[in-house]
Amino acid sequence: MENRKINKNAKIALKQVKFEIAADYGMNQEDVFDIIENAKSNGVLSRYFSELENKKDLVSRLCNTTSQIPPSHLE
């Protein structure tokens, strides 16, 4: 059940990123997905994704210390 929620949130986040990139650069949203996949596989976005993971881990650790539920704007 938790995996379904995580997958749903990931799809929503990816869709939002696609919309933002398309709006910023005046592109088709379908083309944006190909660009994201190419950039990720070629290492261009690897630093960005690792920073997101680090932030997520930090929030989880802080919330575990204070026994709080991590905030999420996607739920």
What key phrases describe this protein's structure?
75 residues; mainly alpha
Write the layout of secondary structure elements.
Layout: H1 2-25, H2 29-41, H3 46-66
Task: Explain what this protein looks like in three dimensions.
With 75 residues, the protein is an all-alpha fold. It has one domain. Helix 1 packs across helix 2.
- Sheet/helix structural class: mainly alpha
CA distance, first residue to last residue = 14 Å
Q: In what range is the share of β-strand residues?
A: under 5%
pLDDT average, as an integer?
74
Number of discrete helical segments:
3
Determine Rg (CA atoms, Å): 15 Å
Shape: globular
How many domains make up the coordinates?
1
Secondary-structure element order, as H and E? HHH
Taking the sheet with the most strands, its summary is: none
β-strand number: 0
Unreliable stretches = none
Helix content: over 70%
